[in-house]
Amino acid sequence: xxxxxxxxxxxxxxxxxxxxxxxxxxxxxxxxxxxxxxxxxxxxxxxxxxxxxxxxxxxxxxxxxxxxxxxxxxxxxxxxxxxxxxxxxxxxxxxxxxxxxxxxxxxxxxxxxxxxxxxxxxxxxxx
Length: 127
Prior knowledge:
Layout: H1 3-21, H2 28-31, H3 37-48, H4 68-75, H5 79-87, H6 92-106
Helix pairs in contact: 1-6, 3-6
């Protein structure tokens, strides 16, 4: 089985949310190597054409005060806001914060929880 298809199957709720939050569409090829949150973060950053931080330590704590209610308000866009969302500038910090919030929402975790970049979202398989 194609690795990307397996990732879609394993992570459907999270990937569906990610594609609602970010103005990207992810292919099976892009998703084939995703095992951790950091892997998914790197895929999203590459799709957005931004450089992720070089050091993993730079990811820790970036979610800070972002809450799911804020995220929902930001992604519930009217036609006026669509262009700003679609063509706006994303920073690595924005991507990490919103991806972390998507993980918390998709897996129904405590909103005060910090998401670790090394969190495994799917087991690596030889398919």
